[in-house]
Design a protein that fits this description.
Elements lengths: L1 H7 L9 H16 L13 H11 L4 E5 L2 H16 L2 H4 L5 E3 L9 H6 L4 H5 L3 H16 L14 H7 L19 H11 L2 E5 H9 L10 E4 L5 H8 L6 H15 L10 H16 L8 H4 L1 H21 L5 H29 L2
């Protein structure tokens, strides 16, 4: 392949290897015929350039799917910039973008809410409060809002408080920060790019979401495909446990603070989540769990009931200001999406 030889010739001391050239030709033919292609090549073959050059030459949008962050960084910080700077050699200029799951980006709406939640969420831990403030200052001037671009070391606990996943987000049109949302701007860049780099989990979400997560594309290249089965099975299922329930409880409790008198209405959910966690911990080493015998099914049902009660409490709260109304919508969406997954898990396990 002439274009491949030309760009490889720009690498210091490199030359096109027979395996690399053979792979590039096979990839180009698969693109042209719109056929599936499986390639197994050893380390040092130069696989990335062998599929990137034919992908660029299609003139169509191509999504490159990887399993590891290291490979994504290599593609977006090394290989794709290298090729973009040598478009005269390939004969085709192109643009590229990296797109990650929503929770990888700081959320402006969450950051706007955070001041009133710091004491409740972090139980007075000064270091975590200061980290949140650091993230907020960084986000004010950030270009991407991507956690990977943040120099400060941030724990998963803190990042969960300043980000939002698809279970919570009401979408661009229903958020006052929609026009400046980091996640939405990343999607805009991906929609305008010729080559879009994503991870396997996000591509799995795209498949589950009826093709609505990623921009329309003509081809997909799945690198590190040996990991696809495990990650895809996760994408097509649901994950439910104390961590996810605890995060949802934190968001609901913060919204309800000052609204409900007497006992904390989220306390019952906390108790039921703890019971579920203990039961799951007892089953940690089991390949397959008997949900009825272990009590896990009843624990899941009780958590679902607690969320249902909280949904009713949220519905009864009257809000006047626009921002408060949007916050209520986000909490309601979070409860609904969690209940949907709980219902799915109960239905799926009842059919085993």
């Amino acid at each position: 392949m002439t274009a491949l030889r030309a760009v490889v010739g720009e690498l210091d001391g490199a030359e096109v290897r027979p395996g690399q050239e053979e792979m590039a030709a096979a990839v180009a033919e698969a693109f042209e015929r719109r056929e599936h292609l499986f390639v197994q090549a050893g380390t040092g073959t130069g696989k990335s350039l062998a599929y990137l050059v034919p992908a660029i030459l299609t003139g169509k949008r191509v999504v490159v799917v990887t399993a590891t962050r290291a490979l994504q960084e290599q593609l977006c910080r090394k290989d794709l910039p290298f090729l973009a700077q040598r478009s005269k050699l390939t004969g085709r200029a192109f643009s590229y973008a990296q797109l990650k799951g929503r929770s990888n980006y700081a959320c402006r709406a969450r950051l706007a809410d955070i001041e009133g939640e710091l004491q409740e969420s972090f139980n007075g831990l000064r270091s975590e409060r200061e980290t949140v403030h650091t993230v907020a200052r960084w986000a004010d001037a950030a270009d991407t809002g991507d956690r990977a671009d943040l120099d400060e070391s941030v724990s998963d606990t803190v990042w969960a408080m300043v980000s939002m996943d698809s279970h919570e987000c009401p979408g661009r049109q229903k958020c006052s920060f929609g026009d400046t949302c980091f996640a939405e701007l990343a999607r805009d860049r991906a929609a305008a790019a010729d080559v879009v780099v994503v991870n396997t989990a996000l591509y799995g979400q795209h498949l589950v979401g009826a093709g609505k997560v990623l921009p329309p594309h003509s081809y997909a290249v799945i690198d590190e495909a040996h990991t696809l089965e495990e990650i895809a099975s996760t994408a097509f299922g649901v994950t439910m446990g104390p961590t996810r329930i605890g995060r949802a409880a934190t968001q609901v409790r913060a919204f309800l603070t000052g609204e409900e008198g007497g006992e904390d209405p989220v306390s019952r959910l906390d108790e039921r989540a703890q019971r579920l966690g203990l039961l799951l911990e007892q089953c940690r080493n089991e390949e397959r769990i008997d949900l009825d015998a272990t009590g896990v099914r009843d624990a899941l049902s009780s958590v679902n009931e607690a969320f249902s009660t909280l949904r009713g409490i949220v519905d009864r709260i009257q809000v006047g200001e626009f921002d408060a109304s949007q916050r209520k919508q986000r909490v309601a969406r979070l409860i609904d999406s969690t209940r949907e997954d709980l219902t799915y898990a109960l239905r799926a396990t009842s059919e085993d």
